[in-house]
Design a protein that fits this description.
Elements lengths: L2 E5 L5 E5 L8 E4 L2 E5 L16 E3 L5 E4 L7 E2 L5 E6 L2 E6 L8 E4 L10 E3 L10 E3 L7 H7 L5 H6 L1 H11 L1
Parallel strand pairs: 7-10
Antiparallel strand pairs: 1-2, 2-10, 3-9, 4-6, 5-6, 8-9, 11-12
């Protein structure tokens, strides 16, 4: 495996590259454990945590497994998710050195989420993070648009169309 789980300065545990990764390299598929439902809710005693879940626009909630459930947010991410036919893959946004923590801009793969104090420590950190593509600064939206998960593109297609038409 090209990654390992270690303690993170950002939050709890993180995912780290064991080997150098190339820009746009497929690192791995996301390990799906199961769907979370009212009949089968999260079980914290088994280590099933809210922040290890992935939400879909149709309302499904999926529990993701190791190692990628430990991918932390950064305002300067180095990986992104790409979902096709319900399967998400982790890709490198740029070249990543061995030993670097893999980080994700949560707004690129979430629909609408919570507000929290960001502790990523990246240059240009927003400080307060409101999870959701629509809450990002427009300049940042345009910069990261090529890395937006297709599921999120579909969900925000009207909004994205407006942004792009303003640029034309």
């Amino acid at each position: 495996m090209s990654v390992e789980i270690r303690e993170s300065a950002i939050h709890g545990q993180g995912v780290y590259a064991n080997t150098p990764l190339r820009k746009h390299q497929i690192i791995a598929p996301i390990n799906i454990i199961r769907e979370i439902t009212e009949e089968h809710p999260l079980d914290p005693e088994k280590g099933e945590l809210y922040h290890h879940c992935h939400w879909y626009p149709d309302g499904r909630v999926i529990l993701t497994g190791e190692p990628y459930c430990y991918t932390n947010h950064s305002c300067d991410p180095n990986v992104f998710l790409y979902t096709v036919n319900g399967m998400s893959y982790v890709f490198a946004m740029r070249d990543i050195a061995a030993g670097a923590e893999l980080t994700l801009e949560y707004s690129l793969c979430n629909f609408d989420g919570e507000v929290w104090e960001c502790r990523c420590g990246a240059w240009g950190c927003r400080g307060v993070h409101h999870c959701g593509f629509q809450y990002m600064e427009k300049s940042r939206q345009l910069e990261l648009l090529p890395y937006l998960d297709p599921v999120i593109v579909w969900y925000h297609q009207d909004y994205i169309r407006v942004i792009l038409s303003e640029m034309a």
